[in-house]
Amino acid sequence: MKSKLLPVNLIKRLIVFCVGQFILAVSVVLAARSALGASPTTAIPNVIYNILLSKGITNIGLGMLTTGVYIIFMLVQLLLLRKDFKPYMLLEIVVSLLFGYFISAAQALLAPLPDPVGYAGRLVYLIVCIPIVALGVVVYVSAQLVSAPAEGVTAAMSAKIGWPIPKCKLIFDSTVVVIAAVISLLFFRGLSGVREGTIILALLVGPVMKPIISLIQKPLMEFCGTQTKRAAAMAQAEAAAFDPGKLIITVDWEFGSGGDLLARDLAEKLGAKVYSNDEIVGMEIEESGLPERFVTEHEKLMRHSAVYDYSTYAYMIQQDLDPLDELYAAQVRVLRRIAQEEKCAVILGHCGNYILRDDPNCFKLFIHAARSARVARSEARHNISGEEAEKAMHATNRSRSKYHQDFTGEMWGQARYYDMTISTTGFTKPNSLPLVLDAVERWKAGKSAVQVSSDTAKKQ
To answer: Both 96 and 220 in a single domain?
Structure first.
């Protein structure tokens, strides 16, 4: 879905874009004041600025130098794309001029701030930069207007070489940092303007950006009338209608609670088809077109790692879907298709409770148990020691929770996101199954009664 370019929306988007760029400009100035190094894309102008200051040249500011380097970046993009360079990309010149002006304005605004004292003071300035950079990126990207020239070069590299965005960004950032370091070494015989702070900023902006996205991106995009590609991918299916003959049950469970076994017993009693990881992954591979190895191992990715966070950051500033987003979008389509085509099905995991949250035919179940019960069940079922069971429980539940929260924004396992939660601590399978079956029947009866009442009211 493309965002509507109504005059009012365009004005709002321009305002948000400018606010985001100014926030980034403030971070550039603070990084320069820290003397520990600027972010990779502003490392070269920062080094040149330090050289000019050492020569007593003060009439060429950091903002002017940043504009000049950004325009060079745009020319590199032009050389890479050549005939594929689009006229609208010339707007990057406007972005460069605007960003340079904002840096100059931020320098004037922050001039009263005291210079940092000692390494600890410099580090404080740098640490303050990190959330400011993250905030600036989230704000300006929410406007979905023109990319900055550095992002333009990254996209051009990806288009021409065929490598993924994160790899191209890493190459571009590394190249720029090396050039800045060489310039500094040639002039100062040491590093000035590009130091450890450059690496710190590159590594930490990604993880800091995530909570900021969850807090402000949605209201910002609603204000602008824009939509992320992930959100657009999620909103492709029509709303389901209530069908008294249809029943879809989604099941999530804590490792060791026996939830998967209970779900299969439930499916057998209901005559439902079970969609476990194997079936769903196969459908996701076909739907997404992504490599089988990536799809089958996606939950094993180190989602807390610096590499993953850097990748997320790279895709976000390109306003594009990363492979995990593409996979989740395929997962949404697969689960909605199952819910539409099957009369009775049990879906295990895969954010089913969230994806089908608005489906009136979907009963959402979560199964949990006390820690001691889960350890004992895991020891018996998997023939492992108590220590091994503890590790498996922690790793699996952490992975499920992280995956669920990243894609849905909801806390995995919280009762308010399910129609029923049940503890298997004091129940054997024969005892817990009737409870769930009874709850499902009562839930269906309640839904049918509401539907009959609604139909009667419409006829009257």
So the answer is: yes
Query: What's the number of domains the chain is made of?
Result: 2
Q: At 239, give phi and psi (nearest 5°).
A: -65, 135
Q: Are 95 and 20 in contact (CB under 8 A)?
A: no
Are 115 and 214 in a shared domain?
Answer: yes
- Domain hosting residue 117, numbered range: 7-227
Q: What's the number of CA atoms in the CB half-sphere (13 Å) around residue 283?
A: 18
One domain for residues 137 and 45:
yes
pLDDT tens readout for residues 375-432: 999 999 999 999 999 999 998 898 888 888 877 878 899 999 999 999 998 766 557 8
Q: Which tens digit of pLDDT belongs to each residue from 60-69?
A: 999 999 999 9
The CATH number that applies at residue 270 is: 3.40.50.300
Same domain, yes or no: 188 and 132:
yes
Q: Is the pTM of this model over 0.70?
A: no
Tens digits of residue pLDDT in 85-99: 989 889 999 999 999
**In this structure, are 126 and 191 located in the same domain?**
yes
Same domain, 201 and 265: no
- Of 62, 39, 43, nearest to 52 by C-alpha is 62
